[in-house]
Amino acid sequence: VSGDAFGVFRRPGQAPRVGVRRGDAVLDVAAVAGALGVPEAVLAAPSLNALMALGPDAARAVREADAPAVPVADVELVLPVAVADYVDFYSSLDHATNLGRLFRPGGEPLLPNWRELPVGYHGRAGTVVVSGTEIVRPSGQRRPGGPGEPGRPVFGPSVRLDIELELGFVVGLPSALGEPVPVDRALEHVFGAVLVNDWSARDIQAWEYQPLGPFLGKSFATSVSPWVVPLDLLAPARVERPAQEPEPLPYLREAPWAYDLALEVELNGTVVSRPNGRHLYWSVAQQVAHLTANGASLRTGDLLATGTISGPGREERGSLIELAWNGAEPVELAETTRTFLEDGDEVVLRGRGRGIDLGEVRGRISPAR
Amino acid sequence: VSGDAFGVFRRPGQAPRVGVRRGDAVLDVAAVAGALGVPEAVLAAPSLNALMALGPDAARAVREADAPAVPVADVELVLPVAVADYVDFYSSLDHATNLGRLFRPGGEPLLPNWRELPVGYHGRAGTVVVSGTEIVRPSGQRRPGGPGEPGRPVFGPSVRLDIELELGFVVGLPSALGEPVPVDRALEHVFGAVLVNDWSARDIQAWEYQPLGPFLGKSFATSVSPWVVPLDLLAPARVERPAQEPEPLPYLREAPWAYDLALEVELNGTVVSRPNGRHLYWSVAQQVAHLTANGASLRTGDLLATGTISGPGREERGSLIELAWNGAEPVELAETTRTFLEDGDEVVLRGRGRGIDLGEVRGRISPAR
Predict the structure, then answer these.
(1) What is the 3 state secondary structure string of B14-60?
(2) pLDDT for the residue numbered B151
(3) Phi, psi at residue A230, to the nearest 5°?
(4) H helices of B129-248, where?
(5) How far is B348 from chain A (nearest CA, A)?
(6) Which of these, A338, A350, B152, B204, could form a disulfide with B217 (CB 3.0-4.6 Å)?
């Protein structure tokens, strides 16, 4: 994990505290809060929120602290952010195109609004969990016509449990209700980045989502990596992108860019996909500008996820439904294959590149209760 | 407002505190916290959340307190709940049918999932505001084909700004991740009820909502009444309802019921609609059971809104798009008519019945910035 990333750690039997990553250690920065000019309560805290709300200068001072180091192996890493609102976008052109081909074969894969705005929706903030949290297979309704009960939906454990590899951006400084954030000032509100696994039950989602969008198909769990890499440390990965077509409306207009970060999906020890962040069509700055264009405010702790990141190649798809093409082309593992997740499967998402290391987000599927 | 309702009030220049309604006064219960056996910090607090988390017995003791009374006229009422996740359902059969007729003329008005599950989605918790908060007209993209720019969407102030009259239920006791709440224990998690105006920009919503649901068309503001009426005080309004057809799946099955509460929509001084809560098809118990069926947890402060409440009659519709039938039948006011909201318009929603008074939620539209 990149040095200077922020997390929240807990020694056995003690309360959680803010930590700064340094090699294989965590700096216990609350121990030197006084010398940093930061109230101790900001750092002896169960989340990064109070620190993020102080702005980037305070965070920079904290991460440069000369503080006692604790081995990472000796602590538990907890959810680093008290998530305010969680918004999940749909910003990968290849992902949206793949899903359009799968679900509307023969039609135009992209819906008419996709190239005009960063499509997104609100997810469930209360079920965002830290890497390593057990993922219980969700139950729910799926489409009528299942065996045994034609015409009525079937209720039971999901049989199409999937992952979504995403990046997530955490809001530091809030914005005021009624005041849109211009695209060229959007990054002032972004504290840093995490990896996100937006677990998805495709069968539940397919039956419920008309007309108000995904709900229980997504809300059972969303896993994030424990370390938040501050935005300025991502600068070396910032690369230009081809022009957006059509040119976005003025409130979304900027020189196209993305983060060149090599991502990977590991399933039961086999790397099954290697997407890259540079394929994202809409930037986090455009997402912030869009989200606030109607006057909606940002709060410290808002989590903005990119949506599944897929690239143009077959080995660059960020979900199993794409990798296995809706079951038609099972994914090869060491000694078996997968179309969707089985109980006991473990998924690890990683991200790195240009000297940056986002670490990993890990989760194992346990049987439905 | 019903005596014993809970709110949060602020005297000029002072910090917010929990209050209990008693006639035209607010009981300053924090002043007698010690005698109630409740930590003072729970009541000298900016929201009801800490009190709600203690459970119904603590709340009952607090509302029976012999505490100093402050005239309501002397205090400011603030948002009573720190909203955790906000879920908006779609639980009125007449509303869903009306929208189906408007948007899919000639087709089956209800989508196939509507009678099988309480359709819902997550809204933006961070823009839930208290009654009286100015509502700034949102800007956003609307469908291509507007005047001047055929083929590309137009960005500007919404020209189809609407209301949605709803009831909202606030979660008190949380539930554990991975553990569904059975329908017959769901009400143990509900602290009380408020009135909700889910302001909606129909033009923004219509262009953005495929395939992930409403986003900016709703996220600019959601207004709630300042007083939370505890659930047990609503008991006199609980009435039986006709059987649901088809009978719901077992996890949603209960004897059908609803709250007989007379609701009204007042626009610029004219009452334009009188819906009633008894028309809701899905109960809050079914909503809680559905929301948690996939293992999603409840948090103290979650807000579950019913969705627009409409009845079968023309004068019982809970939104302007229904009342004015998508612009075709303008609503008559004292000296003018309305299809959607104009700048300066003021909307007041009220709810009462069976000795219960939910008070009101009020909002005035100010021009786009």
Answers:
(1) CCCEEEEEECCEEECHHHHHHHHCCCHHHHCCCCCHHHHHCCHHHHH
(2) 85
(3) -60, 150
(4) 202-208
(5) 21
(6) B204
Nearest-CA neighbor of B98 among B347, B260, B320? Answer: B320
The overall pTM is greater than 0.95: yes
> B130 in contact with A at a CB cutoff of 8 Å?
no
Residues of chain B positioned with their CB less than 8 A from the CB of A213: 121, 209, 211-214
Q: Which of A58, A68, A51, A60 lies closest to A11, judged by CA?
A: A68
Inter-residue contact B244 to A152 (CB < 8 Å): no
Residues in chain B closer than 8 A to A85 (CB atoms): 124-126
Least confident of A181-190, A293-302, B97-106, B253-262: B97-106
pLDDT of residue A1: 92
pLDDT over threshold 90, residue B146: no
Q: Which of A126, A209, A296 sits opposite B124 (nearest CB)?
A: A296
- Choose the catalytic residue: B95, B189, B279, B290: B95
What ipTM score was computed for the predicted complex, to two decimals? 0.97
Tokens of B318: 């809970």
Task: Tell me, yes or no, if A122 is annotated catalytic.
Answer: no
Chain B contacts of A216, Cβ < 8 Å? 290-291, 293-294, 296
Q: What are B75's two structure tokens?
A: 């205090």
Cα maximum dimension of chain B: 69
pLDDT in tens, A21-70: 999 999 999 999 999 999 999 999 999 999 999 999 999 999 999 999 99
State which amino acid sits at residue B106. G
Find the residue in A nearest to B177 (Cα). Answer: A127
Q: H-type helices in B186-308, by residue range? A: 202-208, 284-292
Contact present, A213 and A222 (Cβ < 8 Å): no
